[in-house]
Prior knowledge:
Layout: H1 17-23, H2 31-36, E1 40-45, E2 48-52, E3 57-65, E4 68-77, H3 82-96, H4 102-120, H5 124-135, H6 150-155, H7 157-160, H8 170-183, H9 185-204, H10 212-221, H11 239-245, H12 251-262, H13 266-270, E5 277-278, E6 281-284, E7 299-302, H14 305-315, H15 333-342, H16 351-363, H17 368-374, H18 382-387, H19 393-408, H20 414-419
Antiparallel strand pairs: 1-2, 2-3, 3-4, 5-6, 6-7
Amino acid sequence: MPSSKDRPGVTQSGVTVAYQMADQIMGNLTAVAIRKAGPGRLGDGKGLELHKGDTTGKWVWRYSFAGKRRQMGLGTWPDVSLADARAQRDRWASVLTQDRDPITERRAAIESARAEIERDDPTLETLTRDVFEARKAILRAEGKAGRWLSPLENHIFPKIGRKPISTVRQHDIKAALERLWRTKHPTATKAIRRLRIIFQQGKLMGYDCDPFTVDAAKHMLGAVIHTPEPIPATPWQDIPDLFARLEGRGTTAACLRFMILTLVRASGCRGARFDEIEGDLWTVPAARMKGQVGKVRDFRVPLSDAAMEIVEARRALGGEYLFAISNGNPVSDAGLSKFMRDMGEPGRPHGFRTSFRTWVQDTDATGWEVSETVLAHTIGGRVERSYARSDMLERRRPVMQAWADYVTGAEADSTVVRLGK
């Protein structure tokens, strides 16, 4: 038998308690014995063990359920005393006798408690998603088109999303957005605006939050001089050349040519359907027009001769959409932009609308009111619009034809252009 000085955990004075306790798997522990024991696994019986280190330890209860060995943590020693650990063991052992798994039961109890807390004080992320669900009916494509949640999911939730709403302070918001505020100011501004909506709605729902918190955070972030960069646009003088280069280059190119001729945004053109076109009139549904749901209307677009040629050529291919790709779905927004980049064209699809508007300015092709209506822009105030309800369809027809004649290189009739004024 080895001497006491050769045994692990035995002091030079010959005390053997630490050695004995470090090897003990079954038995009854005492608080004194635990303090004197060295590092090791100490057993108290009925599956309760203390995995002890130099100064701290972890309580573990081992049991079997449905033929499988399970291990439940009961807290750390000395924060959880021997008496407390035994009480927990006995409590969960009682659950086990009822053919219920203690770990599963505890997890369910924790989730229930968390849900109870969140009913009175939800996390920022939980409240945000609740507010979004309540608002998405009035957002285009239920918030997906404008990626309403994106600034919050990318920049707010990872940092402070798990904080209860009552504990979110202006300093928290400032810290989360400080870097973004300087580097990507438009994105940070969207985050601030949406946070204010969330705090305002949360206050109305009875939670302990105030939109002033967001206002204060914005003030703390400070002023930023941000000059928005306009979307790159092909000069109107180069549009005929671009239109010609797009000819015969597939579905995406055909959609870009249609965008040039109709001046409808990408979301409207990409999803264009044959059943939306009657004769030479295309009606773009409100769902694909820019604007808040319920505040935009269907938009009628008079199709020029060149636009009708594209429609008929695409109709001959069959299908539901004018510009469907191989999987049957419409061409993507990203696909349109990529096509132009691959061509080496610095302008972007949305810039066609700028090309047209500049052409009107430089050539005096038509009046301001008509050209703005061509682009489906809102004209006048709310009261004025309630009386002036015309969409100027017949006045837009000659303008659209004149633009198409210019784009395609056809000879424009100056008399027809003047009729659009």
